[in-house]
Design goal:
There is one protein chain. This protein folds into two domains: 2-112, no CATH class; 136-322, no CATH class. It is mainly α. The radius of gyration is 26 Å and the shape is flat. It has helices spanning 2-29, 33-55, 59-70, 74-78, 88-112, 127-130, 142-150, 154-163, 172-182, 186-236, 243-275, 282-288, 293-311. Helix 2 (33-55) runs antiparallel to helix 3 (59-70) and helix 2 (33-55) crosses helix 5.
């Protein structure tokens, strides 16, 4: 009898989980914020870990995917047809997450494979940082952002301050909060903040090296283009069948190949530079706050929306999530 009871309970357990999942999805689709948090707490790690396990995506990029999945309730719309006939985790793994990852990766490639002809001049990769201090309509300086952060509770303000750790100082209440959640003494908290700032400075140095490499490649392209133009001018004055003309055409062909290779190199470097992060790694922020990387990604996405609502218009510093912050690489 006991064996029959155990088997029955084993059959009912996934059924009960499926029913709970159906109810939770309905609440999420209805805009219930608490339900969304419950969903993330229950299934967030599964969603975050999927691209890591299946596609070998780095942990920081998995944070990007996590935010993409929950952005504007995307994943809730994807699971709205779930009827509870199978365990919800199996449904996510078998019918939802793979398509969602592929959609996310297509979006990333569309950003990275922009045509060289549409690029124009090299972008100012420090523009996002300068947006913090630019004056005029549509800008947000550090002072105004600091004021907004000061209105938040320490549990929220420390997340943004850790992300932009080089730009902001921590108030005593925030340091005490970090000590509480991390289980560290205050001197250790301050030391970890300093180490995090060192990491960001190293990233800034890496970005500077990337910018220098882009400048060098661009200089080679311009040099080759000038030589091609000079050869074309010389060819106009040479007899087409002469040996000198033939040699000039060969040299021009070689230079055009070099230009093409340099342009390809420039495109790759530009894509790498656009993915470069000069914010603190999510992995280290999660460690300081004693939580998961996926949870950090979710918190930052919510806080950006909250701060944008307070400001009332889009500000570059809060929208770097896809480009200059995108999510910090570990």
């Amino acid at each position: 009898m006991c064996g029959h009871t155990s088997a029955l309970e084993g059959w009912l357990e996934p059924l009960s989980e499926a029913r709970r999942a159906c109810r939770l999805i309905s609440r999420c689709l209805a805009g219930d914020g608490e339900a969304a948090k419950e969903f993330q707490a229950e299934y967030g790690e599964l969603i975050y870990g999927y691209p890591i396990r299946v596609y070998r995506v780095p942990a920081d990029e998995a944070g990007d995917f996590y935010v993409f999945a929950f952005e504007r309730g995307r994943i809730f719309r994807r699971v709205r047809t779930y009827e509870g006939r199978a365990p919800f985790r199996a449904y996510l793994l078998g019918f939802v997450l793979d398509d969602l990852v592929l959609e996310w990766k297509r979006g990333v490639r569309e950003i990275e494979t922009v045509s060289i002809e549409t690029l124009g001049e090299l972008p100012d990769l420090a523009a996002a940082d300068r947006a913090l201090t630019d004056e005029g309509e549509g800008s947000m300086d550090r002072t105004s952002l600091s004021q907004l952060l000061g209105e938040l509770s320490p549990s929220k303000s420390v997340v943004i301050k850790l992300l932009y750790v080089e730009d902001y100082e921590f108030q005593p209440a925030e340091v005490r909060y970090l000590a509480q959640v991390s289980g560290c003494e205050i001197p250790e908290v301050l030391d970890r903040i300093d180490r995090l700032r060192g990491t960001v400075r190293e990233r800034e140095a890496g970005l500077k090296r990337m910018e220098d490499a882009l400048d060098a490649v661009q200089a080679w392209i311009q040099l080759y283009e000038r030589r091609v133009q000079r050869i074309s001018d010389d060819l106009a004055a040479l007899p087409p069948t002469s040996l000198a003309a033939e040699r000039s055409r060969e040299e021009r062909t070689q230079l055009e190949r070099k230009i093409q290779r340099r342009r390809q190199q420039r495109t790759k470097l530009l894509a790498q530079a656009q993915r470069r992060k000069v914010t603190a790694p999510y992995k280290e922020i999660a460690a300081m706050l004693n939580t998961s990387i996926g949870n950090i990604g979710s918190q930052i996405a919510r806080l950006r929306r909250e701060l944008l609502t307070k400001v009332g218009t889009v500000r570059p510093v809060l929208e770097q999530g896809a480009a200059a912050d995108q999510y910090a690489r570990s």
